[in-house]
Specification:
53% helix; elongated; two-stranded antiparallel sheet; mainly alpha; 4 helices
């Protein structure tokens, strides 16, 4: 058997699960330059209080939880994210499309065709200065 020496080989010095190309800096920022999110002390307090059972909380603590929740809701309502704006726009478009489809289907139905006929009669009578009366028993239109 002939033994061969291999000079070129790949060694891995990283840790298991480590992401390729991402290095940790001591400044709290990753290699892309984004900093870690800062959390306020009030948020931390309320977050810890929410983990407790309600019966363990004092009135003051419950009040602080409720106030924080109300402030967060108001902030989110007054400052919608881009996703929420897009969702609202999409809902508006879908409502308009749905209304258009409903109108198209109504126009093509027998009831829609009858309504269009009656509408044409009413418009013609109005243009001619005539009066239109609807018969209560059968719903027919009569021109005077």
């Amino acid at each position: 058997m002939v033994s061969q020496e291999v000079d070129d080989f790949l060694e891995h010095y990283g840790k298991k699960g480590m992401k390729w190309g991402v290095r940790k800096n001591s400044s709290g920022k990753n290699s892309s330059g984004k900093s870690k999110k800062r959390v306020s002390s009030e948020y931390k307090k309320v977050h810890e209080l929410r983990k407790r059972n309600i019966s363990q909380l004092s009135n003051k603590q419950l009040k602080s939880i409720n106030e924080r929740g109300n402030l967060e809701q108001n902030f989110n309502r007054l400052n919608p994210s881009k996703i929420n704006k897009g969702t609202g726009l999409a809902k508006g478009i879908m409502a308009t499309v749905g209304l258009g489809i409903s109108a198209f289907n109504m126009y093509n139905s027998p009831a829609g065709k009858a309504a269009m006929q009656n509408g044409k009669k009413v418009m013609q009578a109005y243009q001619q200065g005539r009066r239109v009366v609807r018969n209560r028993s059968n719903g027919q239109l009569t021109l005077f």
